[in-house]
Amino acid sequence: MFSSNCTLQQRNFQVILPLKEESCLSKLQMDDIADAIFPPASLPLVERLECKVQQLMAELQETNQQLCHEKVLRQQAEMALKQEKQLAEHREYFISMASHEFRIPLNIISLSTSLLKRHRHHWTEEKKLQYLQRLETAMEQMRYLMDKFLTLDQAEVGKLNFEPETLNLIQFCEDILAELDLCQNHHSFTFVCQGDCEQVCVDKKLLQPILMNLLSNAIKYSPVGSTVDLMLSCEDQKMIFQIKDSGIGIPAADQPRLFEPFYRGGNTGNIPGNGLGLALVQKLVDLHHGQITVTSEVGVGTTFTITLPC
Description:
This protein has six helices and nine strands. By secondary structure, it is α+β, with helices and mostly antiparallel strands. Strand 6 and strand 7 form a beta hairpin.
């Protein structure tokens, strides 16, 4: 039953129908009224209202999706800006430290050249040879620094490509150890291999500096006459290298920062170095999609473990 009147409205349109207290509208009459208010009358009133609600919900969902997309774009822009700022800070620090590292050999070259010019007429041949050897050492140090800086910079900006090829890894490791053995006569090496390592897929131009840096460090920080161990295993589509020494070890406080450029352990003392080797190793391992870990104890020794897919 309706009361004394019925009211139907949409927005500002209002229809008021006076009714007798006992009367009511039939469904046909209601549909006629709805047709007049909500044309066209192809659907019943309730269905047309449901369509309107669905339309509004679709518009709301579309608006929400647009807001979410704008939020993602804003977050990406903020992240890119942050990364650009970090890269600029890294480059500034990198250039500063590079200038410092190059200044040392340049000073040696400048001083040695000046002394040779001034005293070449009355110096003995042995004295001249001594300063010529200093010049040669300084030039070699600059070449070594330049190679590391360029390789590290290429890795930083993504210009160092990963190009794997089939390689006899056993022969590769033996060649590296033979090369190092020729360059020094104060340490010995052991090489142990497990598994099938004769045909593996690896980028040898990236693997070579990884092993050379770690083996050279093992020699540098180990006592004269000690042995450096290289252990290799190939299994489950993985290559695992372990380089173990019995050197000075790395303090626990220094280990989290070992792979930062120019960072050196607090107990290295007067042992020469620039802190670039391990930073470069980390970048090259990353290019292989591999992992490097270190275990070390001061006064006992250090073991680096490199795991690479093959």
